[in-house]
Amino acid sequence: VMASMAHLQEEKLRLQEELLGLQEKLAAQENNELSRSLQLQGQVESLKAKLLEQAQEISRLRSELGGTDAEKHRDLLAAENERLQQEMKACEGELRELRRQQQAPCRDCAHLQENAGLQERLSQLQREAEEARAKLAELDLEVQQKTNRLAEVELRLKDSLAERAEEEERLSRRLRDSQETIASLKSQPQQIKYIIKTVEVESAKAKQALCESQSRNQYLQEQVGMQRQVLKEMEQQLQSSQKTAAQLRAQIMMYEAELERAHGQMLEEMQAMEEEKNRAIEEAFSRAQVEMKAVHENLAGVRTNLLTLQPALRTLTHDYNNLKRQVRDFPLLLQETLRSARAEIGQAIEEVHSTNRELLRKYRRELQLRKKCHNELVRLKGNIRVFGRVRPITKEDGEGPEAANVVTFDADDDAVLHLLHKGKQVSFELDKVFPPQASQEEVFQEVQALVTSCIDGYNVCIFAYGQTGAGKTYTMEGTAANPGINQRALQLLFSEVRGKAADWDYAISVSAAEIYNEALRDLLGKEPQEKLEIKLCPDGSGQLYVPGLTEFRVQSVEDINKVFEFGHVNRATECTNLNEHSSRSHALLIITVRGLDRSTGLRTTGKLNLVDLAGSERVGRSGAEGSRLREAQHINKSLSALGDVIYALRSRQGHVPFRNSKLTYLLQDSLSGDSKTLMMVQVSPVEKNTSETLCSLKFAERVRSVELGPVSRKAELASWPSQEQLEGDAPSGRGHASPSPGQFSGRATSIRRKLQTSG
């Protein structure tokens, strides 16, 4: 029993090993079959691709075999070429023979045209022969290339057939190997059926071992059954692969038959093309014979006409030589003519340039002379001079079409500017126009002559006019780093005073006032809110003065800065939609210069009125409400009164309404003919302010046409006073009270203390 148990164990192990081996073989066989099926599919796809390529090659050959017509044409052209060469040689021989004979010239020139036509025909035949040679060479090359391609296609076809035969042989061998492997696998499992042995068991342990062995044997038999089932499935797969291979063989045979049929069709088409080629050659030959007959007839006519060609040829040769000489000399004549023409044109251009430069120089000189004469005429007539200044475009103007620039300037005349209003250009002529890039220094250079005349005893008035936000306050006051006309005027006066200090004694005093809501206020007084009145001087001179207006003497630039700072603090300014720091009042800076010539005792008194008018504004655009609205109404009313005064002065009316407004009443002396007056009109260049700019420029033109009459100098001879009397003398001009020397000294001391405290 133990021996049999051991034998059964060994048999069991062997069966397990065989089972594992069979499983591995089955797995390997499955992989091989799968790979073989994939290979067969790939081969089928490659055969299909090859058949498609061969079909494409056959179609291409069919299209290329159409070259047989070209071969026919080539042969025809070759025959015609040979015939034309022979005819050309014959014609050339006859021409040489005719030249040798040197017959008498024919006087009948009617054959010249026919001779020319024959020569042209001869040259045409030669060109056709050359073209035929070229076409013949091209056709030979094409035929050679097509023959080579056909040989290559045949070689490729043979190679593909050989490869296909080899592939079929290889597939058949693999199929036979697979069948042999399956047969060997079928024969192996039969040994397992007869391994079971009957063993008598004598003990319980042996019985138990035997039962276990039988159960294991049964398990192994089940495994063997499963393997057999797997083998059956593999056989079915093998049969399906064999069917697939058979189908592929059938497809290959079908493709071969189709290829043979295509080859037969190609041969038939080639034969048909060959027949067509022969037929075309015969037709071309017949046409060539007909043309040959016509050429022979033409040659007969040529032979008759060539006898008359020698004199015509001699004449043509002579004319040709003359033309050749003229053509050879033509470039030299052309270059010489062009050179002389360039020289004349350059000289004319230089003369025109010099003439233009001279005219431009004369024009500018005349323009300057005209301006000088105009200024002198304005001075003699007493006209109000008008300067215009255009502010630059700022970020507050915004962006878009409303912020576009509508103001342009004349490049040749600095007194003209153009405004684009509603699509039309409107031009304005003033005495001087400053563009946006003009500096404060450039503006002051134009007005400093008026400022210095104040020292000589003349009354001068400079006032800025324009809409709110146009830059009036900037022009008159400026900034600390870039001061305006007010501070520069005082600095210039101090400079002139220092230059005349050897012969003259001068005293400069400053007053500052504003007109706010038709109320006159003292900006340098102790009570800036106190209202002042304008009255006539009691001396009977007819001039105006302001009782109680503070007058502060300045002796240095530091005093000027303190006065300006104190007056600026008291002036009324507010923020509106059009201007962040809009002036809500008319500001008036009165500078009085009193001088005394120590050698002659001549005393002069000059006044410089610098006026910064409040800007005109539209209430709807500025967004003024409440007190701002009332201020705007008073400002517009006073500016309207100023326009009425200008209109009355321009039309020379008997009554001028100066008293309609505090502004015009205060400017009466400056606008009534006893003052040098300059108006600085400020305009905005952007499109949204076009209406206000147009109104300001029209008002400026009206002001420019006003004649005030000649200006008189305020000078008188008096006894030589002391410096203290000069400093404490009461003001005799308009717009000031007449305090005693003690009162003036006390007021000046209090104002100086106030300015020092505020500074």
TrEMBL record:
Residues 714-759 are annotated as: Disordered. GO terms for biological process: microtubule-based movement. SUPFAM superfamilies: P-loop containing nucleoside triphosphate hydrolases (SSF52540). Keywords: ATP-binding, Cell junction, Coiled coil, Cytoplasm, Cytoplasmic vesicle, Cytoskeleton, Membrane, Microtubule, Motor protein, Nucleotide-binding, Phosphoprotein. PROSITE patterns: KINESIN_MOTOR_1, KINESIN_MOTOR_2. InterPro entries: Kinesin-like_fam (IPR027640), Kinesin_motor_CS (IPR019821), Kinesin_motor_dom (IPR001752), Kinesin_motor_dom_sf (IPR036961), P-loop_NTPase (IPR027417). GO terms for molecular function: ATP binding; microtubule binding; microtubule motor activity. Residues 5-188, 231-287 form a coiled coil. It comes from the Eukaryota. Minus-end microtubule-dependent motor protein. Involved in apically targeted transport. Required for zonula adherens maintenance. One of its GO terms (cellular component) is adherens junction. Residues 750-759 have a biased composition (Basic residues). It is a peripheral membrane protein. Belongs to the TRAFAC class myosin-kinesin ATPase superfamily. Kinesin family. ATP binds at G466, Q467, T468, G469, A470, G471, K472, T473. Its main location: other. This is Kinesin-like protein. Residues 383-706 form the Kinesin motor domain. It is found in: Cell junction, Adherens junction; Cytoplasm, Cytoskeleton, Microtubule organizing center, Centrosome; Cytoplasmic vesicle membrane.
